[in-house]
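Hi V.,

Quick status before I head out on leave. The structure for the redesign project is tokenized and pasted below; the design run finished overnight.
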């Protein structure tokens, strides 16, 4: 997976801190949600392509009230706005809960956690049976490391409250 520049988002308050167990308990519902979000994102890309072709062919005329493709353009634009709002709303809801969606296509998400005495991310990707990796807030997928086994003392396995 290509590495993207990392942005550390800021919360107005403190983000929820997830344990490995809590994150694993969320995987089933998160998997279902990510499948739906990805479907919306695929449709949104298709709509953007259609809108781009209409604008490229017709130019600014496409916005005229009596344009022959005006209704198609309006329908696509309304669907684009609805999908964009829906995706943003769901992603923001996850973010508010301490889960950052990193890539909708691959289903890559990070959960805020406290590992080895510092804020980190628990890293999970759709298709993985459980959360098995973590990385620093300033690092990405390429830098994720396996979570030590439950035999090792690890702060992410203790219960934290938000």
């Amino acid at each position: 997976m290509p590495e993207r520049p990392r942005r550390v988002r800021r919360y107005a308050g403190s983000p929820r801190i997830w344990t490995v167990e809590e994150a694993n308990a969320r995987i089933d519902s998160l998997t279902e949600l990510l499948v739906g979000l990805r479907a919306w994102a695929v449709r949104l890309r298709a709509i953007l392509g259609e809108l781009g072709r209409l604008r490229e062919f017709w130019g600014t005329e496409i916005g005229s009230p009596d344009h022959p493709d005006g209704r198609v353009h309006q329908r696509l634009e309304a669907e684009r706005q609805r999908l964009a709002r829906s995706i943003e709303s769901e992603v923001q809801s996850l973010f508010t809960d301490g889960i950052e969606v990193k890539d909708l296509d691959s289903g890559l998400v990070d959960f805020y956690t406290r590992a080895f005495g510092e804020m980190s991310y628990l890293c999970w990707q759709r298709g993985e049976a459980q959360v098995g990796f973590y990385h620093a807030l300033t690092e990405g997928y390429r830098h994720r490391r396996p979570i030590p086994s439950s035999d090792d003392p690890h702060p992410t396995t203790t219960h934290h409250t938000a």
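Above is the designed sequence. The two ends are 31 Å apart (CA to CA).

G. will cover questions while I'm gone.

Best,
W.
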